[in-house]
Amino acid sequence: MTLAQAVRAPQVRRVRHRPRRQAVHRPAERRRQAIATGWEIRSFLLVSGVVVACFLLVLLYLGQATAVSAAGYEAQRLEARRDELRRQNALLEIESARLDSPARVEAEAQRLGLVRAATIKVVPAEAIAAKR
Amino acid sequence: MTATVSRARLRVLFAFFAVATLVLSARLAYWQTFGRGDLLSRATDQVRTDLVVPAQRGVIRDRAGAILATTVELRSLYAIPGLIADREAAAGALAPILGERAAVIRAVLDSGAEWLFLRRRLPEETAARVAALGIKGLGFEKEPKRLYPNGSIAAQLLGFVNDDGLGQYGVEGRYEDVLHGAPGRLVVERDPANRELALGVRTGVPARHGEDLVLTVDLAVQTAAERELAAAIQRERATGGTVVVLDPRDGAVLAIASSPTYDPARVASANAESLRDRAISWTYEPGSTLKAITIAAALDKGAVTPKTTYDDVGYAVIGGRRLSNAQGKVYGPTNVTQILARSQNAGAVFVASKLGAPDLYAYLRAFGFGERSGVDLAAETTGSVRPLAEWYPVDLGTISFGQGVSVTPLQLASAYAAIANGGTLYRPYVVASRRDADGEHRTAPVALRRVISAETSATLRGMLTATVDDGIANAAALARYSVAGKTGTAQIPSDDGRYADDAYISSFAGFVPAEDPRMVVVVVLERPQSKLLGTLPAMAAFKGIATDALRYARVQPDRP
When you count CB atoms within 10 A of the terminal residue's CB, does the N or C end of chain A come out lower? Predict the structure, then answer.
């Protein structure tokens, strides 16, 4: 039995007794019948609406949960990527420091045949200021 | 009859099910009540992981921001031999990359271990080459490693980090608690693929990373000090040596070099002697460099003036002992300035006699000898100044020219810094500032005490300048800069309590520019082969360091 049938079942049972009453053919009876039919439809629509709404809510929840889960995995992937980039950056900083090391620069300068400047001219700041 | 049997069977069946239901219900009730915690923890253990989040060790930088020590995660290569399809081929492919024989790698893979490290903390390019092989059954795990990009430069000053991640010696040892930080804890839930569940539990305590340290050390000056020390030791075939460079204005250590040295990347193969920072944990008799202290004390006390004169006969007799000038030279009438300029032992005895033992002792202690300087480095020693009560009469004479006391090179540099800066003794320091999550915390220089008056300081600066310009330390003179300083040659006590005949320690202590000192440099050479002339390489080292440091610091010349 479907849900609609289940909902309508009591009405069906009531309808089974109606033919005897219909034989009376009174207008009040017809009105009651029409009201009952309307109530049936409304009940069906209401229950169907609730079922559909629940279904949609569940669907929405599942969709959100899936989206959050997927975003979480993406965040983890990005975190791992960030950590790896930081590690690579640290390695590059180390390499940069090694290349900038005065001892290495000095050794490289010697290898290239460069020599130390014998004298370095120093111009006092006062002399420059005086010329201006 | 049949109905009766059936009813009986039904009763039995009913009873059986009733009992079974009762038992199952009881069991269920047990697991829902008393056994709940156990079940819950078992279920939790399957998905929940409790991780230790390691704290990152702080970075050490020089005063200009150059990295001296830092920690990076390097990849360690592990193998699961059971997953390697062809171990022979894998060993053959790994051998040239790891620099190991294929047979050795094969033997390791065949050792029966389920999981093992093949190499720990590989250089990045090596790890990349291994990864490119794409061999199934090989993998990487990241492990932290302390790296020193300048190699052996400042090795003893920095110290090192041992396999347990603990700092040893130097700054690493002294600031271990600050650099180390505190590990954190992270509890997460994971899926069967070991991925963290996005909607799972994620709690914990974050790690507190170690603080970064900025040193007072200048990498350029440090490099110059190491270079000049190595050159002097090589020329003199000395057994060791030390250089200390201080800023006399506040006691900041600009450089400390010590030889023999070691490569921090190969600490395991370094000998114990090379690990020692000789500037702070080795003592020696300072010899004539201490005459400046004796004369400073006598001037400050008013016992002598620069023009006080005595007649030098080549020796002095004190406590029944005859103490001679170097090489027995006789100088005749000599004033105190000349005593320093010629480095006369008899003259130093004369000055000390004028001062007296109690005052000489008091000034030695005031200058910081016989106690730790308080520098923020691990393993500093005190040196030795015997208590006054233990002095023999002759000690006044011998100590006046630097024998019978032992000092560290850093103590001598601090004492000369006090002479240079107008008379204040500063506590030497290495860490200029610490940086943590709250910001930067700068170290305030500590003036320990006034040792001599500003007038005495100025007078002595002039006398030491004359010693370089016209005296025994002329080889330390620099073009266009005034230099003040004093040489020292000390004998080395042997095991039998006497002085060795053929072993000396040569040194030079000076500062520049003499009128407005920016740096104090102490150079010490152990057992130089040219013996008494060993002060020449010490002075040459001073010149090399001072020339570079002055140029680098853009100090204007004070002479035409």
Answer: C
Residue keyed to tokens 């000395």: B238
DSSP per-residue letters across B194-252:
SPBPTTS-EEEE--BPPPEEEES--HHHHHHHHHHHHHHHHHHT-SEEEEEEEETTTTE
> Tokens standing for A106?
């000095």
User: Best interface-test mutation with A: which of B67, B186, B199 has the largest number of A CBs within 10 A?
Assistant: B67
Q: Compare all CA atoms of chain A with the CA of B551 and give the residue at the minimum distance.
A: A120
Cross-strand bridge partners of residue B442: B433
Residues of chain B with pLDDT under 50: 1
Packing angle of the helix pair A102-111, A27-100 (nearest 10 deg): 50
Cβ neighbour number for residue B458 with a 10 Å cutoff: 14
Task: List, as own/partner pairs, every contact residues B366-370 make where C-beta atoms lie below 8 angstroms and the sequence separation is at least 24, other chains included.
Answer: B366/B425, B366/B449, B366/B451, B367/B293, B367/B296, B367/B414, B367/B415, B367/B418, B367/B425, B367/B451, B368/B411, B368/B414, B368/B415, B368/B425, B368/B448, B369/B293, B369/B405, B369/B407, B369/B411, B369/B415, B370/B405
Q: Which two tokens stand for residue B243?
A: 């250089």
pLDDT at A38: 87
When comparing pLDDT for A12 and B7, which is higher?
A: B7
Do B196 and A119 count as a contact with CB atoms less than 8 A apart?
A: no
Query: Which pLDDT tens digit goes with each residue over B191-240?
Result: 877 777 877 778 889 999 999 999 999 999 999 999 999 999 999 999 99
Q: Which residues of B315-345 are buried (b: 16+ CB within 10 A; e: fewer)?
A: bbebeeeebbbeeeeebeebbbbbbbbbbbb
Higher-pLDDT residue of A22 and A27 is A27
How far is Cα B31 from Cα B33, in angstroms, rounded to an integer? Answer: 5
- A contact residues 88-127, partner B, Cβ 8 Å cutoff: 90-91, 93-95, 97-98, 100-103, 106, 119-120, 122, 124
CB-based contacts of B358, cutoff 8 Å, min separation 6? B388
Residues of A within 8 A of B551 (CB-CB) are 120
Q: Tell me, what's the pLDDT at B1?
A: 47
Cα distance between residue B157 and residue B160, in whole Å: 9
Peptide bond into B286 cis (omega under 30): no
Other C-beta atoms within 10 Å of B493: how many? 16
Question: What is the Cα B503 distance to its own chain's centre?
Answer: 28
With contact defined as beta carbons under 8 Å apart, do A40 and A8 qualify?
Answer: yes
How far apart CA B241 and CA B239 sit, in angstroms, is: 7
Q: How far is A38 from chain B (nearest CA, A)?
A: 47
pLDDT digits (tens, 9 = 90+) for B141-154: 999 999 999 999 99
Among B129, B159, B160, residue whose Cα is nearest residue B145: B160
For residue B64, count other CB atoms closer than 10 A to its CB: 11
- From B491, B490, B503, B485, select the one nearest B546 (Cα to Cα): B485
What's the rounded Cα separation, in Å, for the pair B232 and B506? Answer: 11
Q: Is A87 on the interface with B (CB under 8 A)?
A: yes
Give every CB contact of residue B547 below 8 A, 6+ residues apart in sequence.
B478
Q: Which residues does residue B72 pair with via DSSP β-bridges, in sequence order?
A: B145
Q: Is A81 on the interface with B (CB under 8 A)?
A: no
Residue B160 has phi, psi (to 5 degrees) of: -155, 175
Residue with tokens 């005296």: B471
Residue B418 Cα, gap to closest chain A Cα (Å): 29
Q: Which stretches of B48-203 are DSSP H helices?
A: 87-98, 102-109, 124-133, 155-158, 170-174, 176-180
Phi then psi for B115, rounded to 5 degrees?
-150, 130
Q: Searching chain A, which residue's CA lies closest to the CA of residue B560? A: A122
- Whether residue B123 is preceded by a cis peptide bond, meaning omega within 30 degrees of 0, is no
Closest chain A residue to B124, measured at CA: A91
**Within 10 A of B30 (CB to CB), how many other CB atoms are there?**
11
